[in-house]
């Protein structure tokens, strides 16, 4: 039997029982819709988490520390004490010359006393590079970001801002002063330094909800943020200065840690290896991203298994529809065999009908699933908007999910058509022609 004749016959048969076939196709569409909706939720959440972490600059970042810090943390040393290199300005310049490095900046964080409206408020200051503006932490902030690395400006974390005033938005544009201990190097060449109390005026230009890149190696615990250039110019005493003084440190200051930003995440491993060869400790958060991908892979698998239950029910509908079609079309099958149609032709005919129902159900299911995802995004963003939070996309339907969903629907439909097709092919043409 020719493919054209097979197609015309199958389409005619589907039209004859249009209500039953439509309901069966709708069952397939519902199953595919649940599959697409659940998987799109998993994909959307994964993209949301990955994009936020990528924007935060954690995945394209290598954190550098002197090897002696690793010993203090009881880590296994890889070099002898004499081979340990100081993490000073020379080291910073050397790191900046490594291939595929965008910038190298120190982690500057120090305690201070803020004077505002005549009252003291103890807190911690953190220096921020201009590149941190791209961090998702500053999305939806009140006010604006620093105008430059040397601008005498400050951004407050919301909880600290509430300590200064219940009306946090009113703080933008006002001035506060910070009191800190400045490190001044002694001129006798001994490597020692003196601590001088200093005070500096800063203009409040913004309020943020969260601490940018909080955690080890980030700017965690920094409730008052200032440009990195200003933070360096203050020469505020930090914990590593006290350590250098106790052990009779060098005449020039060292950094507690440095942050090295790569052009892309693919360059991180090579940069990390180069940093270790230079005699420093280095680590990145790529391992955390790998664990995140494993988690979302398992999460998507679980969602897919639950959603497949609805598609499994739909396959029973296909089996029932085709079995009923066999009973109604026994004479037709007998005529086909009498005219020379083989068992394979009859099987192919029923397979084609099952495949068409699966294909149409797959297309309809993808459309329904996409609409469900849009509804989830809309409802989520309405909820967030009422709480003055930025909008997000929790559901995403990529092209690969569309193709997989339609292909899966067709394959499931063909599997469901195995039994009816085999049963139709085994009909005796003589008995089929006698059937009333």
What does this structure look like?
There is one protein chain. By secondary structure, the chain is an alpha+beta fold. The protein folds into 2 domains: 3-54 and 291-434, no CATH class; 61-281, no CATH class. Helices cover 52% and strands 18% of the residues. It is built from 14 helices and 11 strands. Helix 2 (18-55) runs antiparallel to helix 12, helix 9 (286-328) packs parallel to helix 13 and helix 11 (343-386) runs antiparallel to helix 12 (399-416). The chain is elongated and about 115 Å long.
Structural class: alpha+beta
Shape: elongated
pLDDT below 50 for ≥5 consecutive residues: which ranges?
A: 69-82, 213-219
Major pleated sheet: 6 strands, mixed, barrel
Radius of gyration: 34 Å
- The neighbouring-strand order within the major sheet is 3-4-9-6-8-7
Based on DSSP secondary structure assignment, what is the total number of beta strands?
11
Sequence of secondary-structure elements: HHEHHEEEEEHEEEHHEHEHHHHHH
Report the β-strand fraction as a percent range.
Answer: 15-25%
What is the number of independent domains? 2
Task: Output mean pLDDT.
Answer: 77
Note the total helix count.
14
Instruction: Report the end-to-end length measured between terminal Cα atoms.
Output: 26 Å
Proportion of residues in helical segments:
40-55%
């Amino acid at each position: 039997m020719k493919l054209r004749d097979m197609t015309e016959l199958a389409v005619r048969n589907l039209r004859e029982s249009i209500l039953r076939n439509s309901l069966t196709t709708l069952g397939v569409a519902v199953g595919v819709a649940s599959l697409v909706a659940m998987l799109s939720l998993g994909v959307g959440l994964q993209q949301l988490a990955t994009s936020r972490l990528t924007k935060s600059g954690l995945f394209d970042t290598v954190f550098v520390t002197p090897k002696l810090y690793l010993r203090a943390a009881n880590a296994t040393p890889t070099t002898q004490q004499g081979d340990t290199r100081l993490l000073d300005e020379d080291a910073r310049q050397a790191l900046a010359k490594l291939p595929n490095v965008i910038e190298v900046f120190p982690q500057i964080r120090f305690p201070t006393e803020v004077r505002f409206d005549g009252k003291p408020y103890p807190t911690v200051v953190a220096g921020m590079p201009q590149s941190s503006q791209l961090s998702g932490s500053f999305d939806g902030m009140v006010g604006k970001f620093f105008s430059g690395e040397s601008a005498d400006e400050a951004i407050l974390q919301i909880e600290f801002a509430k300590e200064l005033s219940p009306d946090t938005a009113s703080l933008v544009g006002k001035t506060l002063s910070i009191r800190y201990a400045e490190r001044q190097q002694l001129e006798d060449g001994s490597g020692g330094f003196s601590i001088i109390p200093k005070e500096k005026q800063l203009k409040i230009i913004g309020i943020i909800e969260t601490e940018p890149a909080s955690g080890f190696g980030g700017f965690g615990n920094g409730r008052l943020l200032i440009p990195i250039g200003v933070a360096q110019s203050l020469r505020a005493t930090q914990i590593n200065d006290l350590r250098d003084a106790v052990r009779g440190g060098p005449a020039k200051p060292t950094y507690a840690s440095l942050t090295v930003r790569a052009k892309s995440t693919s360059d991180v491993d090579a940069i990390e290896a180069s940093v270790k060869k230079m005699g420093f400790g280095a680590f990145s958060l790529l391992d955390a991203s790998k664990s995140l991908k494993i988690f979302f892979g398992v999460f998507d698998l679980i969602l897919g298994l639950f959603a497949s239950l609805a598609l499994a029910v739909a396959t029973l509908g296909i089996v029932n529809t085709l079995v009923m079609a066999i009973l109604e079309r026994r004479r037709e099958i007998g005529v086909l065999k009498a005219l020379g149609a083989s068992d394979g032709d009859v099987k192919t005919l029923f397979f084609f009908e099952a495949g068409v129902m699966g294909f149409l159900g797959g297309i309809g299911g993808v459309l329904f699933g996409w609409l469900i995802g849009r509804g989830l995004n809309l409802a989520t963003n309405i909820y967030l908007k009422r709480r003055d939070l930025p909008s997000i996309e929790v559901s995403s339907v990529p092209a690969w999910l569309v193709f997989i969903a339609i292909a899966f629907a067709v394959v499931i439909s063909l599997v469901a058509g195995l039994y009816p097709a085999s049963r139709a092919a085994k009909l005796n043409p003589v008995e089929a022609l006698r059937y009333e």
